[in-house]
UniProtKB/TrEMBL annotation:
<dbReference type="InterPro" id="IPR018389">
    <property type="entry name" value="DctP_fam"/>
</dbReference>
<keyword id="KW-0813">Transport</keyword>
<dbReference type="GO" id="GO:0030288">
    <property type="term" value="C:outer membrane-bounded periplasmic space"/>
</dbReference>
<comment type="similarity">
    <text>Belongs to the bacterial solute-binding protein 7 family.</text>
</comment>
<dbReference type="GO" id="GO:0055085">
    <property type="term" value="P:transmembrane transport"/>
</dbReference>
<dbReference type="Pfam" id="PF03480">
    <property type="entry name" value="DctP"/>
</dbReference>
<keyword id="KW-0732">Signal</keyword>
<dbReference type="InterPro" id="IPR004682">
    <property type="entry name" value="TRAP_DctP"/>
</dbReference>
<dbReference type="InterPro" id="IPR038404">
    <property type="entry name" value="TRAP_DctP_sf"/>
</dbReference>
<protein>
    <submittedName>
        <fullName>Sialic acid-binding periplasmic protein SiaP</fullName>
    </submittedName>
</protein>
Length: 338
């Protein structure tokens, strides 16, 4: 009788793999047990789409490839999970482009304020082409394998103190942001007081007025239920954020080729499902949030972009990213800044 073995990842050690190819794994000799950490709540379409993908991977491999998802920051903050991923303590993570900027600065460039006019130029820029290649190369330097981005939407402001009708309404506002230099810079340039708070702790921070508000996409606002402790939703659409599915490079490279193909195929399908579900959820979310008691307003966005330009926001980030990369971005966005 063959002996069934469980092959797991070890902290800092990557994955201890059998030399057997995946077709032998499918025959019942080995089990690959891997972990995927995520900051996203249970109700977020990124979570539900990944659950479907992991179930399909488990089923198609007869249980020999078993990836466990830990959502809702169960494994720690995004920065903590990025550290765990780099050490090999976990095999995969879902992490926002905005927070990933603290590790690989170029990863945050899709979040430049008021850059993309919609999803057509956005996905053209991020799924392939020169900008996508430069971001993936930047992540590869940290031995991270990047799959496609799931959508976390164009971001709006929700507050407990006042609606954001003009730039002056942001003056001194204590607003929760993820650990993103771009978002921190954006709100400082507009006169607000941004503060970094772990997503899982944001509800309590808003409830106790540690922060006056937060900024995020409508599906994320719904999933975190922060509308229960806020009053005003302002459709500022100031930035877009997505979530990279990342693998620990050495773990990924050591997996049997058939296992890599199976995982990659279902991750790709999960991204397609998530993007479609997110757009549908986002389209309906404003009405649902309004029905929950939020006062919704749509400010004129031109003054916000002009204020950022006057404050030197675009010039600063063009200098920090470099003219070549900025040109790759403007290929899809048009000119940014004066």
């Amino acid at each position: 009788m063959p002996t069934r073995r469980t092959i797991v990842q070890g902290a800092g050690a990557g994955l201890l793999l059998s030399p057997l190819p995946f077709r032998r794994v499918r025959a019942g000799t080995d089990v690959l047990r891997l972990s995927l950490g995520s900051p996203m709540p249970q109700a977020h379409p990124a979570t539900t789409s990944l659950v479907e993908a992991l179930d399909a991977i488990r089923t198609e491999s007869d249980g020999r490839v078993d990836i466990t998802l830990y959502p809702d920051s169960q494994l720690g903050s995004e920065l903590s999970m990025q550290s765990q991923l780099r050490s090999g303590a976990i095999a995969f993570t879902l992490t926002s482009a905005s927070s990933l900027q603290t590790l690989a600065p170029l990863a945050g460039i899709p979040g430049v304020a008021y850059a993309f006019s919609g999803y057509v130029p956005l996905w053209a820029a991020l799924d392939s082409g020169p900008l996508s290649e430069r971001i993936r190369d930047a992540l590869a330097k940290f031995r991270l394998k990047a799959f496609r981005l799931v959508d976390n939407g164009f971001r709006d402001v929700i507050t407990s103190v006042r609606p954001i009708e003009t730039v002056s309404d942001l003056q001194g506002l204590k607003i929760r942001v993820p650990p993103s230099p771009l978002l921190t810079s954006l709100f400082r340039a507009l006169g607000a007081a941004p503060t970094t708070i772990n997503l899982a702790e944001t509800y309590a921070a808003l409830q106790t007025r540690v922060a006056d508000g937060m900024e995020n996409s409508l599906p994320q606002i719904e999933a975190t239920r922060v509308y229960e402790v806020q009053k005003y939703l302002s459709r500022t659409g100031h930035s877009w954020d997505g979530l990279w599915i990342l693998a620990h490079g050495r773990t990924w490279d050591a997996l049997p080729a058939d296992a890599r193909a199976l995982i990659a195929r279902h991750f790709d399908a999960a991204v397609e499902r998530q993007r479609q579900a997110f757009v549908q959820m986002n389209t309906q979310a404003e009405a649902r949030l309004g029905a929950k008691g939020l006062a919704v307003n749509r400010p004129d966005l031109a003054p916000f972009r002009a204020a950022l330009d006057r404050a030197g926001y675009y010039a600063e980030w063009k200098g920090r990213f470099g003219a070549e990369v900025w040109g790759a971005l403007e290929r899809y966005t048009g000119p940014l800044g004066a």
